Amino acid sequence: MGCCDSKLSDEQLARKLQTQYDNHGGGGYGSGQGGGQGTRSSGGAFTGQGQVLGTGATAGAASPGASTEDRRAAAAAAAEARSQGFQQGGSGSANKEKAKKMADRRTKDELVGKIEAHYATKGEDPPFGLPGASLEVLRKHLDEVKGR
């Protein structure tokens, strides 16, 4: 124990430390004295603003007139927008070239998978270097394999 606190009982020391913790915002590692976004009251409750899921509004500014159906429609629209962004090669990326490359890569992976599955059902090994072939070559090869 420290030199000055050695006369305090464990309970008194714990209360003293808790009071200091509460008075300084209860900050942890790297949080400084503010304790983060919200402030800490003496009761330990979080008093900062948060976001209401699915609305994009802060908790204090949530529209009380919005019906459950409106909220569900907004959530569905947001999910659809995220899905479209993912399908186009990222999180709403405006880079059309990157989106095309990723779509081509998905198509190529699907073709390679189909060709390898076809060879596996026949008990044969697929051609070496199949994943390195172009899309056109893979399409032709799949047509040939299916025609056998």
Level of helix content?
40-55%
Strand and helix order: HHHH
Cα distance spanning the termini: 85 Å
How many beta-strand segments? 0
Count of helices?
A: 4
Tertiary shape = elongated
Major sheet attributes:
none
Runs in which pLDDT lies below 50 for 5 or more consecutive residues are 29-42
Radius of gyration: 30 Å
List keywords for this structure.
4 helices; 148 residues; 0% strand; mainly alpha
Nutshell version of this structure?
This protein is an all-alpha fold and 148 residues long. The chain is built from four helices and no strands.
Structure description:
The protein has 148 residues and is mostly helical. The protein has a domain at 67-147. The protein is 50% helix and 0% strand. The chain has 4 helices and no strands. The chain has helices spanning 10-23, 68-87, 96-122, 135-147. α3 (96-122) packs parallel to α4. Residues 29-42 have low confidence and may be disordered.
Topology at a glance:
Elements: H1 10-23, H2 68-87, H3 96-122, H4 135-147
